[in-house]
Write a structure and sequence with these properties.
This protein is α+β, with helices and mostly antiparallel strands. The chain folds into 2 domains: 36 residues; 174 residues, no CATH class. Helices cover 31% and strands 29% of the residues. It contains 7 helices and 8 strands; from the N terminus they run ααββαββααβββαβα. It has an 8-stranded antiparallel beta sheet. A hairpin with a 6-residue loop joins strand 6 and strand 7. The longest helix has 31 residues. The N and C termini lie far apart (53 Å). This is Methanolan biosynthesis EpsI domain-containing protein.
Length: 229
């Protein structure tokens, strides 16, 4: 067999390395394309968005106050197939919360957390996320609870609860991008509100009470999807 010269060996090695690099980039693009659904929204993602139409306008002591629209740039960044953004008022205490629920491909839905969004605007992170169980102690839903403080002089606190779901159970996932990456869609819920006003005494903060009442109402997101962890 004819032996290769040193230059020929180096050339072949370089070609092999280049081919491996190209394959790595191609596979990376394929995975990212699947996570972000850059090639269009599948039918099950469209159907998942319709679940948001059933979000109740009143439950417990909470009443719908306003419906809001997200900026087009935010919808585009999150690649939302559907969303709702609302304010609710408690008829018994006059407290108010804002709730947002989005559904979209797992990639962008998983990575945009309140710690990134709020901290980059007008708030400082005051308390790092802690997992809170709501509902049945054994199989209840779990949410991340995080606290911010306004950067303005004398600024107040803002409590935020958030979680992800694909099968009707909300989870405070530590790695949602990887835990849900193989699924066709992912929901995220986020509830924000200031601490109870002076004179209102409650054992739980208003965001947690809002979520407790929402879960008691029976509203849940889409059915279980294959490959769920």
């Amino acid at each position: 067999m004819k032996q290769l010269t040193a230059n020929q060996s180096v050339a072949r090695f370089s070609v092999a390395v280049a081919a491996l690099a190209l394959l790595s980039v191609a596979l990376g693009g394929l995975v990212h394309g699947r996570l972000s659904h850059r090639w269009g929204e599948p039918a099950d993602l469209v159907a998942a968005a319709e679940v948001l139409n059933d979000f109740p306008e009143q439950f417990g002591d909470w009443r719908l106050a306003t419906k809001e629209s997200m900026d087009d740039s935010v919808v585009e960044t999150l690649q939302c197939a559907g969303y709702l953004s609302r304010a609710y008022t408690n008829s018994a205490t006059a407290e108010s919360v804002r709730v947002a629920v989005i559904v979209g491909p797992p990639g962008p839905t998983a990575v945009h957390t309140p710690e990134i969004c709020y901290s980059s605007r007008t708030y400082n992170l005051e308390k790092r996320p802690e997992s809170e169980k709501i509902g049945n102690e054994q199989d209840g839903d779990t949410f991340w609870s995080v606290k911010f403080r306004s950067k303005e002089a004398g600024g107040g606190e803002l409590n935020v609860y958030y979680a992800w779901a694909s099968d009707g159970v909300w989870r405070a996932s530590e790695s949602p991008r990887y835990e849900y990456g193989g699924l066709p869609f992912l929901y995220k819920i986020q509830v924000a509100g200031a601490p109870s006003p002076f004179g209102v005494r409650q054992e739980e903060d208003l965001c947690k009470r809002f979520l407790q009442d929402l879960l008691r109402s029976g509203w849940r997101v889409g059915p279980k999807v294959g490959n769920e962890v």
